[in-house]
Design a protein that fits this description.
Shape: elongated
Number of helices: 12
Order of helices and strands: HHHHHHHHEHHEEHH
Distance between the termini: 47 Å
Oligomer: single chain
Strand order of the largest sheet: 1-3-2
Radius of gyration: 22 Å
Helix content: 40-55%
Length: 342
């Protein structure tokens, strides 16, 4: 007679579990509220899909780091990094997932896979995050691919845990597939993962918003900005750039692209991470620190630029150029619509 598997939505309640559940719900709620109102939501969504996708690949056993996916999706060979393993066979998986996340109507979890849909009578009274973990566990036992881990952000939205889709909240745990018995440890571990990913996502969103303000301030005071505006708009969606890639994207010479990147670095808007003259590579400061190319500054961070009254036209112009950039990126094969802002 088969033994029933434990239900992750009905753990043994302890003060530690309650505290961790509360922290996870609060961290997700803060990120959700910020993304729903942020002017930088679209580029953040794009970067967050790369982060979440890396998490899912690693759970599947891929020896890959987040920086590798960022470099591949930005079409830049990062210094000191080996090419992404070809045995991943994932070239189409990421675009498909991005299109699924962009769908306005979220699908109910019972419609996703042929998994057990029997639930206890008090199912709707149990904490939503624990129900999400139980659904993910059932999916992972029915599907050995990367799909159950990638389904977590969409699941959170369909369960009304979040209003916006938050791709960085991709989690995975191989123990969920192995007829889990240690329910308590699994629940605690995954709640901690959700909390950490939500906190990291909020930090990166804050950095992106500050970069946007600093870019607008630099453009406001720049003499003959040239293509600087297009560059600063582009790096929000493509945060890792090189002269060769930039020359192709902005239709300038490689020499001109290198000078443009050097100018952005002098304005402290980008950071050079290559240290080589021939194949220079640049990225945004927060990612350079996160990926180990820079050192996090010590002490209180400087205040972001203030939006003064005469600063508003510069922001409006920046937004207009961002809309034009969407069209340019679409012409280059970058599907901006795959990164919703709601």
């Amino acid at each position: 007679m088969p033994v029933a598997l434990p239900d992750l939505s009905e753990p043994i309640w302890t003060s530690r579990l309650v505290a961790r559940l509360e922290r996870a719900a609060a961290a997700i709620g803060r990120l959700d509220a910020r993304v729903s109102a942020s002017p930088a939501a679209a580029p953040w969504q794009r970067r967050a899909t790369w982060t979440g996708y890396t998490t899912a690949l690693r759970v599947q056993g891929a020896e890959i780091d987040e920086i590798d996916i960022f470099g591949r999706e930005c079409a830049v060979n990062l210094p000191g990094r080996r090419p992404v393993p070809t045995n991943l066979d994932d070239r189409n998986a990421l675009p498909i997932w991005q299109r699924q996340l962009a769908q306005r109507e979220s699908r109910y979890w019972r419609d996703e896979l042929a998994i057990s849909t029997d639930v206890p009578e008090d199912w709707n009274q149990r904490p939503a995050l624990l129900r999400a973990l139980e659904i993910t566990a059932r999916r992972s036992r029915a599907d050995s691919t990367i799909t159950p881990w990638l389904a977590v952000p969409g699941l959170l939205r369909s369960m009304k845990i979040t209003q916006a889709v938050l791709p960085c909240l991709t989690i995975g745990d191989k123990a969920l597939r192995l007829s889990p018995r240690d329910t308590q440890a699994i629940v605690l571990r995954n709640l901690r993962s959700l909390t950490e990913r939500a906190k990291e996502g909020l930090v990166r969103l804050q950095a992106l918003e500050e970069d946007r303000l600093r870019a607008a301030a630099a453009l406001h005071g720049a003499h003959r900005p040239g293509k600087l505006l297009e560059l600063l708009s582009l790096v929000q969606f493509v945060p890792v750039v090189s002269p060769r890639m930039l020359a192709r994207r902005l239709d300038v010479t490689i020499s001109g692209a290198g000078k443009l990147l050097s100018r952005a670095a002098e304005l402290d808007l980008l950071v050079e991470v290559s240290g080589r003259q021939a194949w220079r590579t640049y990225m945004t400061r927060d990612l350079a620190i996160a990926f180990g190319f820079g050192v996090r500054p010590i002490g209180r961070p400087p205040a972001p630029p203030r939006a003064l009254p005469d600063f508003v036209p510069a922001l409006a112009e920046f937004d207009r150029e961002m809309a034009e950039l969407d069209s340019m990126l679409a012409g280059l094969g970058v599907d901006v619509s795959a990164h919703p802002t709601d």
